[in-house]
Each structure stands twice: as C-alpha cells, then as structure tokens.
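Section 5.1 Outputs to date
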Amino acid sequence: MTPFWIITGALALAVAALLVLALLRGRRDTGPAQAFDLQVYRDQLEEIDRDAARGVIAGDEAERLRTEVSRRILAADVLAQDAGDADGQPRALKLAMAGLIGAVLIGGGYGLYARLGAPGYGDLALADRIAAAQDARENRPSQEAAEAQIPPTAPVDAPEEYRDLVQRLRGAVAERPDDLQGHVLLARSEAALGDFVAARKAQERIVEIKGGAASAEDYVDLADMMVLAAGGYVSPEAQDALEAALQMDPQNGVARYYAGLMMAQTGRPDVAFRMWDRLLRESGPDDSWVPPVQAQIEEMAFRAGVSDYRIPTIGGRGPSAADIEAAGDMTAEERQEMISGMVARLSDRLATEGGPPEDWSRLIGAYGVLGQTDRAAAIWLNAQEVFAGNQEALAIVRQGAAQAGVAGVTE
C-alpha cells in the first residue's frame, strides 16, 4: 500500500472515530437537565449544613430548608429516571447511527475520490499543468512506435476474388511507384480490408506524388489513416498532416475533430472541449464528425470543469458567405425562398443557445441581403453586448454588419 493511501486511511479513520465517539457519549459529561438539577440541590444541602454549623442560620430554619431541598431532589430524581439514556436516545439507535456515519464517511469518501480523484498526481499550478501538457505533446510516441504497439487484428471478411484483385493491385503499384491513380485505388482497397497501416503508406505516397498540388482532403485522408492505424491515437505525424489541412481549409470538420482529439490526448481537455463545442455549433446534422464529437464532448466538458454543459442542437450552420453572394443575384422572391428558412433557424439557435461570432456575422449579413436592415442593426447591437470586451469576436461580427451596411450602428 502506498504512503498516500496509508495517510488518507488513517485520517479518515481518525475523523470517523471522533464523530462516532461524540455521538455515543452524547451529553454524559453534564447529563440531562434533571441530572444537573440533582447536583445543584445536593450542593445546596451541603451549603445549608455548613451555614448551620457556623451559626449563620438557625437550627429550625436549616431543617426547613433541608426539607424543601430534599423534596426537590426526590422530584428531580424521578424526572431523571424517566428521561432514560443521557440524551434521550436508545443506545441501539445510537450505535446504528455511529456505524452509518463511519460507513458513509470512509466508504463515501473513497468512492468520491475514486470517481473524481487522481491518486499519485501532484498538486500542480495551472502554468505547470499547461507546461506538462506541452511537454507530453512534444515528446509523445511517433506514428511508427504507436503502430508497433497495436496488436494484430482479425482480417476483414471479404470475398476471395476481391482479395486477389487487391493483391494484383499491390503488385502493379510496386512496379509503377509514381502511378497516382493506382495509389488512390490501393489506399481505398487497403482501408476496406482493414489494413490501415498499408492504407496509410499508400496515402503518404499520394501526397508525395501530388506535392504542392496536394489538397486539404488529401492531408485529412492521410491523418485519418494514421489515426486508424494507431488505434485512435493522434501521432506527431498525424498532427503535421492535420495542420497542413487546416492551413488550406480552416473549416475542415474532420481535421478540427482530430485536432481536438489530439489536445484531449495530451492533457488539454479544456482546449479540446472549446474546439469541439464550436465545431458542433457550426456543423450540420449530416456531417460525419458530429456523432463522434457528441459521444465524447460531455466527458470532455466534465474534464474541462464545465459541469452543466448541454450538447447544442445541431441545426445547420445558417447561410454561408457563398449562399449570401448567390442570393444577391436572385430576385427578391427567390432570395426569400432560398435563405429565409436558414435565417430563421440560425436566428432561433443564436437566441436560445448562443453561438460563435461567425454565426452572428452570417446572420447579420443574411438580413442585409434580404433588405431587413432594421433586423440586421438590432442583431448587431445585441452582438456588441454578447461579445463586449472580446475585440477579436467583435471584428468577425463587424464583417457581417459591414456587409449589411449597419456597421456604424452602436449603442
């Protein structure tokens, strides 16, 4: 047993013993009121005897006082016997209560610690924790090391003809290492067979062949194959692929999901929670990354210290900049039909749940396209209250206000 458990166990037992002892002793030091009265009356008898002996009071007066005090002693003694136990509670009940207190204090304390605590984890300041997470992120295992730790898995059940085709494809790609289409087919085929290491290698070759022409999706596919090959672990090499993808497409949902997962795995659940919460609020119900985020974000919120988090309703991102631009070339009726539904959903969501500044910007711009500048101005004013003091967020929302022609409206 470690010193930590010995110390905490001793402390828990000591506290429980003190509480139980106090309960069992009750009020025995002073007794009930009747017992206290008895002691007072006995003291009075002794005082009367001393006064009579010194001649302070006459003999007949002393006798009368003794009679009166004795009568009170008899009455108090009867009441004391009727009171029963020292504090009026049966001893069996107090023993049961003592046992319950001990069980709740010791068992409940260790149960809570098992749920919330981290035995052996040092008491670190926030800056030290952030530094430790940074160190873990910089020194975590490589892709190759992570793949080596994954136990072999059973082969995917596939027709023998399909396996033969994939085997021939492997041979053809080996003979033509610069055949881009061959590597694309091979990456998909290896993934379909569950050989994600081979799929990862094929995807790496795709990115190498494309060079500067490689797209964000190419890098996302590479990161995806790496994570799958490593059993869900986001390696430094996968992180590099994700960063390349996000440089090209900052809104790529898969890359943002894996980036949050990487932060969660390296000691920054607070960052992961913020990333995933924002991603959910900007996602549509059919986006592929929504289910895995929804399955994990409540635990991430708990780890980040957010105890009352509720998963936001996924209702779409609202009209995008492309939607608004396309609506500008339409007739009023066509614009109304195209974006009124999206605007209404987005407006309702922001009013009930809030959202990132990008959503506020889109909503204000959409009302500007619809010609509803009064509504756009009102929402811009509301956004200034919501994001007061956050200049970065206000700058994003101001873009939509400028598009709607209401950027000059202030409180």
